[in-house]
C-alpha cells in the first residue's frame, strides 16, 4: 500500500514537472494563477436593490440577456469610412500583426481579461463596438463580444461573422488595412 502511494506520488511529481516544462517552452504560456478581473463599471441600482431591505429578485433585462447581433460587409465599410465604431480584432496577436483593420484594437479571445485595458482605454461603454476574428467557424469574436457585454458593460456590441476571411477575399478594404502592433 505504501509502495503504491509512493509510486502515485512520483508519477504526480513527474507529471507536474512535464507540464511546467511544456508550458515554459510554449510560445504563448498559460498563466499559473488567474489575474484578477478589472472592475466593471458600476450599474445603476435596480428597483429591487434600491429599496432598503428588499428581498425580491428580478430577471435581467431583455437587452442584458440578448446575444450580440451581427453586421454585414457594407455596414462594416460604412462604419470604417465614417469612423462611427470601434473595431476589436479577436484573433491572436501574431495574426493581428500580419494584418488587421485600420484602427482595430487587438483583444485576443485567449487573453480577454489580461488585455481588456486596450479596449477600456479607447472606447466608452456606449460606443458601437464591432468585433471580428478569422471568419467562418471562428468563435473568438463571439467569446470577446459576450465578455464585453457581460463583464464590462458595453451595450452596443455586434459581430462581423465573416471577419478577416471576407476582408481579405473581398478586395474592398484596401484603404482600411494595417499591419504591425499598432491599431
- The SS-based structural class is alpha/beta
CATH class annotation of the largest domain = Alpha Beta
Strand element count: 7
**Envelope shape:** elongated
CATH superfamily of the largest domain: Rhodanese-like domain
Strand content: 5-15%
Number of domains: 2
The major beta sheet can be summarized as: 5 strands, parallel
Whole-number radius of gyration? 21 Å
The strand order across the widest sheet is: 1-6-5-2-4
Oligomer designation: single chain
Features:
183 residues, alpha/beta, Oxidized Rhodanese, domain 1, 5-stranded parallel sheet, two-stranded antiparallel ribbon, 42% helix
Describe, in plain words, how this protein is organized in 3D.
About 40% of the residues lie in helices and about 10% in strands. The chain is α/β, with parallel strands linked by helices and about 180 residues long. It folds into two domains: about 30 residues; about 120 residues, 3-Layer(aba) Sandwich (Oxidized Rhodanese, domain 1), CATH 3.40.250. The strands form two sheets. The protein has a five-stranded parallel sheet with strand order 1-6-5-2-4, sandwiched between helices. Strands 3-7 form a two-stranded antiparallel ribbon. It is elongated, with a radius of gyration of 21 Å.
Amino acid at each position: 500500500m505504501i509502495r503504491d502511494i509512493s509510486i502515485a506520488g512520483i508519477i504526480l511529481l513527474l507529471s507536474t514537472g512535464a507540464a511546467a516544462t511544456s508550458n515554459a517552452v510554449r510560445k504563448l504560456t498559460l498563466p499559473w494563477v488567474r489575474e484578477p478581473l478589472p472592475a466593471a463599471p458600476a450599474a445603476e441600482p435596480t428597483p429591487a436593490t434600491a429599496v432598503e431591505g428588499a428581498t425580491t429578485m428580478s430577471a435581467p433585462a431583455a437587452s442584458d440577456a440578448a446575444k450580440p447581433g451581427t453586421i454585414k460587409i457594407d455596414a462594416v465599410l460604412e462604419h470604417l469610412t465614417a469612423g462611427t465604431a470601434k473595431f476589436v480584432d479577436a484573433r491572436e496577436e501574431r495574426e493581428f500583426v500580419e494584418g488587421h483593420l485600420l484602427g482595430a484594437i487587438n483583444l485576443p479571445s485567449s487573453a480577454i481579461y489580461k488585455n481588456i485595458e486596450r479596449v477600456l482605454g479607447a472606447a466608452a461603454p456606449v460606443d458601437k463596438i464591432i468585433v471580428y476574428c478569422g471568419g467562418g467557424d471562428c468563435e473568438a469574436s463571439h467569446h470577446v463580444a459576450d465578455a464585453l457585454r457581460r463583464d464590462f458593460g458595453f451595450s452596443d456590441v455586434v459581430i462581423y461573422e465573416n471577419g478577416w476571411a471576407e476582408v481579405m477575399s473581398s478586395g474592398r478594404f484596401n484603404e482600411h488595412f494595417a499591419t504591425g502592433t499598432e491599431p
